[in-house]
Amino acid sequence: MHPMETLSVHILGCGSALPTTKHNPSAQALTLRGKVYLVDCGEGTQLQIRRQGLHFGRIHTIFISHLHGDHCFGLPGLLSTLSMLGRTGELHIHGPEGLTEYIDAHRKSFLAECSYEIITHEHDYRKSEVIHEDPSLCVRSLPLSHRIPTMGFLFEERCAARHLDKPAVDFYQVPRCCYPAILLGESYTAQDGSIIPNNRLTKPGRIPRRYAYCSDTEYFPDLIEQVRGVDLLYHEATFGEDLRARLATTAHSTARDAATIALKAEVKRLLIGHYSSRYTDVTPLLDEARSVFPNTTAAQEGLIIHL
Known about the structure:
InterPro entries: Metallo-B-lactamas, RibonucZ/Hydroxyglut_hydro, RNase_Z/BN. This is Ribonuclease Z. By secondary structure, the protein is α/β, with parallel strands linked by helices. The protein folds into two domains: 8-159 and 206-306, Metallo-beta-lactamase, Chain A; 163-203, no CATH class. It has eleven helices and 18 strands. A seven-stranded mixed β-sheet has the order 6-5-4-3-2-1-18. Strands 7-8-9-14-15-16-17 form a seven-stranded mixed β-sheet, with helices on one face. Helix 10 (255-265) runs parallel beside helix 11. The mean pLDDT is 94.
């Protein structure tokens, strides 16, 4: 597969609210076909973008899960930097209710002469719906259960359902003007009146790759069907079972909770993160998750997963 076609997840930050020397607050970047999609934007995100060799000019769309500071305090600085770099193309930012007010407050103070247009989109965090579409990706919101309005995101690659079998269309002398109809599933009627079935003229396309981002949330069984079978699930694992008592007041998940969701949803791979600052070593969290769902990876800044 050509590198531009690789759907990659870059971990820019995987810690929780309190700063540590080991982890940045939440932020990720998805890259596909030359575009960068930013998911959450905690403090320090700009430096992580630089460290990972990503390009500010290729940031296409931003998705904010909720308005807790460790997921959005890096956003005003990033928006300012994009203006200083001379961005001209409009920037769309998606998130739950309150997003526009948050952006507008910073826009009035620091972005009065912004070089580009910022367009915010607020979505109902209580339902799943398509919130963004472009030629590369379709993005659906995922309801989560946290202390304030919070949503996750399901990213699904856009790729053709079928491809032309070039030797076959050449053999049957199919005119180019018929290609679009064939790609939509139609058969071809030759000049002698014979019908060439579509499956002789096309090959099945690649199955779209899917990535689900779920942070922050308590254990939420409603999520299982929404993420069933995804190629990669990122699910917060703020605590281990040793700190389960804290879940009642924080509305977070343990590593075991994350793994249970992954197991029941039959996902292909689990990625845990959003670690509490209480853990200087996340190995116990990884071990706990793997005891339920073996194909689990612990997020670390600088990690890149290619789907």
